[in-house]
């Protein structure tokens, strides 16, 4: 047998593929190589067969050549990967050349192939070349993936630096400039991490990434209003506490993203999910059922200990002050019955071992069935308790009574009522936190467990932030910025309730697909979830829209800040400025899908027509020369308002495919064209 053209290699072929993109890239190559290897031992060496094999082999070789050229270019641009990438590219090129040599049979006559190493005569050489090619190409892809990770880390570092600058600003003007830069950097980071999240194969990592990105999304708007409130009221302790909490949470979320993409652990921590009852029951049943195959797979003592550990976890349910007496008794009763059934199983098991039985006896089989059924009954009871409590809480909290009361008390400057309703909100927060913990026990999958933990942490953090924002408003009841800040945190609370309703539905679908219709979600959000039709934008449009959204929110907030200084509240321009400054935050969506139903588009078109006259008025005012401090201040404010309007209508251009009517209208704000 002829020797292998590619020789021996100790190249690592056991690389772990962690992303879908790498996996999908390898599929065509694997398919072509499989075609070459899986030929018949004695195929008919017809011209057609020889030509086909030659064609496939040459295609593989050419593709590898192009692939290696890209890999070598990456190595040149990234010196830290130069040696590893160069070695991997060398191995890939060598393997590609070997395959080309082994499949070079297209132009040869069948009689000329005798005595030469080909895919027909040296299958071992072909297998070695294929393995070397797959391992080296995989290595190149994995090394290239490090570049993506490096981009995410670099983007995170830029965000952190700007975040530090934002935290230290002392003037509103400086804050506006730095926040604009921060918004651009966050948009870039969001796209990189969003692509990475979609590319991850590990569902647990994907869920953790989604949770961290959700925190960053919501905290971006919180950071804006909390910082503005601190700048307006620099001596207010509650405003400082509110702001510090937002910055801390954003840094933690940024760190979590890096932990996921680099598989590192901060301070040497190895974060492990808390043991859930669902998984505990699953593992216990598996141990019990294994006795059918092997009576000596574990000891009776270990099985009893496993059950006790499972029962101990149910204390999260039975020790809760919010669990009813009937529910507590039902859980405790099922735990006791599970102990009794397990003891009967152990007794039958010991008897079977004493007579050296090789398989489960009839008594053991009955005991196994009873034990498994009992712990399944326990799981269903715990599921019913957790889901029932969550549904009841969502019904009650859907009315948002404590939030409304806190807003009203803060606006009135009533610190006593703020303290009273803060206690009510704190109690509701504790109920929600505990309920999320119970849902984690019965969620059924690790990604849902991670989502439950995220919900628990979110309620735990946002509750105190709402209270500090309400305290700030109560101390400064005439402050529009403090009012806006409280509104943003309340919206985040409501959004998390909506997310919890969706989570509850997913848990119910996993554990019991037949029970679905009884779950209750906040009425405010449920209609949108059913009727909204997502309009998908490409990456460039999402980036542009998100940047414009952040700038729009910043500018409109700036207008609101300046308007607050004006005493003549009946002035038309003031009134219109205030209405525009209250643009819904949904327009400033952090890079994601923007939802707009057909009916809303019609309403938007109608309202835009009404703004034409107002914009003409503003345009004339902006062109009119003025003198004096007050007049100059008013003109500057008008220009800010024009800029805000431009951002608004530029956003809508995306949804109308840059329709000329919208473009003309937007440009007309600056007098570039006339509106007829």
TrEMBL record:
The chain crosses the membrane at residues 637-655. Keywords: Cytoplasm, Membrane, Transmembrane, Transmembrane helix. It comes from the Eukaryota. Pfam families: Vinculin (PF01044). InterPro entries: Alpha-catenin/vinculin-like_sf, Alpha_catenin, CTNNAL1, Vinculin/catenin. GO terms for cellular component: cytoplasm. The keyword Membrane applies. It is found in: Cytoplasm. GO terms for molecular function: actin filament binding; cadherin binding. One of its GO terms (biological process) is cell adhesion. Belongs to the vinculin/alpha-catenin family. This is Alpha-catulin.
